[in-house]
């Protein structure tokens, strides 16, 4: 019976065949342990010299790392492995022998691993992170569909720049100038006026000269946008959504979290509602903590965010940032024009900002003013202003950075391990 590692539990005591790669191997004179992987999972194959033909044992002992093979064996329970099963090998058919696989079980430097990302993805650790990424994506679709949102796909090639003009990837669109999308938000606002509650999931691009563990040049964002939702309604969607994906990962990625050594007790606590602190209070708190380098009107850096987040064992919303710090589309607080009705969601354990969101300006005159102030009064925004001309309504939305969320839930230090092929400052290979 041909099957996969993820399905062996259905064949206890039976002989199965699995197409696999040899991840690693240990052997003595009497027994060989083959660490097999097939993409769906990892299983140990045991070859006992006294129980197989001489030739099979010899072949098992000579297998090289990452050789592809069909392995025949009897599925057995194995209480010592977290996976719970092993394969008593009865036959081996090599498909392709791998010679001198570059990533050996010894330690390799980061640059070396990054240069071999196309192979590094095969490792147990990367496999676990990619499965967690997939679970977050799956749970995202599940959550928003359950809540009545419609998935809408904004364009990648655009003429506008929602998040400021300094970090744009410029390209030619035939004879016109164009940019790679920084955020689908402006288009999602148009979509919300057509479909009510919408969400997008797609790649976004920032030509940011940042070389930190939280920055990618190309990253994936989930961007919900909701007509008739105001500041409070927006935060509620965010905390429920984030709780949902955390609980989904806990439920469906137990093996992966264990393989990564993730402390899941910290994730189990993540349930809505989330704590909040205003920007004003955050500044006061930082001053009390001895951060003399920051004054009202400054943006927070990673150390500031981490210091604030350390007060909570939950993600925390920092609300009401200075208007001057934030993009043109954010709605100023009607009682206090110098701050906007926005919130950033800061993940615990030092993972930083995972969400940026706000209520949007819906007054036509105010949006025109704001566009002008930001020097964006061009034809590229004509359509965006028109959204406020015809039945404008209060609306709100946010963007969750997938890779930072994967890093947090997986407990990996750097976002470079959270996307299959990271685009980083000075790296577009492989
Ligand atoms: O805060 P940002 O820039 O917000 C927006 O783009 C809004 N237009 C979203 C919206 O309201 N629809 O980005 C949102 C999130 C950040 O909180 C962060 O998680 C992630 O996107 N992000 C990055 N992730 C990796 N690398 C980068 N360079 C990132 N820049 C932002
Ligand atoms: Mg932000």
Automatic annotation (TrEMBL):
Name the principal localization, coarsely classed. Answer: cytoplasm
Record InterPro entries: Aa-tRNA-synt_II, aa-tRNA-synth_II, aa-tRNA-synth_II/BPL/LPL, Asn-tRNA-ligase, Asp/Asn-tRNA-synth_IIb, NA-bd_OB-fold, NA-bd_OB_tRNA
**Molecular function as annotated in GO:** asparagine-tRNA ligase activity
Swiss-Prot/TrEMBL keywords: Aminoacyl-tRNA synthetase, ATP-binding, Cytoplasm, Ligase, Nucleotide-binding, Protein biosynthesis
Instruction: State its location(s).
Output: Cytoplasm
Q: Which CDD domains match?
A: AsnRS_cyto_like_N (cd04323), AsxRS_core (cd00776)
Has UniProt tagged this entry with the keyword Cell wall biogenesis/degradation? no
Q: What is its EC number?
A: 6.1.1.22
Checking PANTHER family in the record gives: ASPARAGINE--TRNA LIGASE, MITOCHONDRIAL-RELATED, ASPARTYL/LYSYL-TRNA SYNTHETASE
The entry sums up its family as follows: Belongs to the class-II aminoacyl-tRNA synthetase family.
Describe, as the record does, how this protein assembles with itself and its partners. Answer: Homodimer.
Q: What is this protein called?
A: Asparagine--tRNA ligase
This chain is encoded by the gene named asnS
């Amino acid at each position: 019976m041909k099957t996969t590692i993820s399905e062996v539990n259905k064949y206890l005591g039976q002989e199965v065949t699995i197409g696999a790669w040899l991840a690693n191997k240990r052997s003595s004179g009497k027994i060989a342990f083959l660490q097999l992987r097939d993409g769906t999972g990892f299983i140990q194959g045991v070859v006992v010299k006294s129980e197989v033909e001489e030739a099979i044992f010899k072949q098992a002992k000579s297998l090289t790392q990452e050789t592809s093979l069909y392995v025949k064996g009897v599925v057995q329970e194995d209480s010592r492995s977290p996976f719970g099963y092993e394969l008593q090998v009865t036959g081996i058919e090599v498909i392709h022998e791998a010679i001198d696989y570059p990533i050996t079980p010894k330690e390799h430097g980061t640059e070396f691993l990054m240069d071999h990302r196309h192979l590094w993805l095969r490792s147990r650790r990367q496999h676990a992170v990619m499965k967690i990424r997939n679970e977050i994506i799956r749970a995202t679709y599940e959550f928003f569909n359950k809540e009545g949102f419609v998935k809408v796909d904004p364009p990648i090639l655009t003429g506008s720049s929602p998040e400021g003009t300094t970090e744009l990837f410029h390209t030619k669109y035939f004879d016109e100038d164009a940019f790679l999308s920084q955020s689908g938000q402006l288009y999602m606002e148009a979509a919300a006026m057509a479909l009510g509650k919408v969400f997008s999931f797609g790649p976004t691009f920032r030509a940011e000269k940042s070389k930190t563990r939280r920055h990618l040049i190309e990253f994936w964002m989930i961007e919900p946008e909701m007509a008739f939702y105001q500041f409070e309604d927006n935060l509620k969607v965010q905390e429920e959504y984030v709780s949902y994906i955390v609980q989904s990962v806990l439920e469906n990625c137990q093996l992966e979290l264990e393989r990564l050594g993730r402390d899941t007790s910290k994730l189990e606590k993540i349930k809505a509602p989330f704590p909040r602190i205003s920007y004003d209070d955050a500044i006061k708190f930082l001053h009390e903590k001895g951060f003399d380098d920051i004054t009202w009107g400054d943006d927070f850096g990673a150390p500031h965010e981490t210091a604030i987040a350390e007060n909570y064992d939950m993600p925390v919303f920092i609300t009401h940032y200075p208007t001057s710090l934030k993009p043109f589309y954010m709605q100023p607080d009607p009682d206090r024009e110098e701050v906007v009705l926005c919130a950033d969601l800061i993940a615990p354990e030092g993972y930083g900002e995972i969400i940026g969101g706000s209520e949007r300006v819906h007054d036509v005159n105010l949006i025109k003013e704001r566009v002008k102030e930001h020097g964006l009064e061009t034809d590229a925004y004509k359509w965006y202003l028109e959204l406020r001309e015809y039945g404008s309504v209060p609306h709100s939305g946010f963007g969750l950075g997938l890779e930072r969320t994967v890093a947090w839930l997986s407990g990996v230090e750097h976002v470079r391990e959270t996307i299959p092929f990271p685009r980083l400052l000075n790296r577009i290979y492989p």
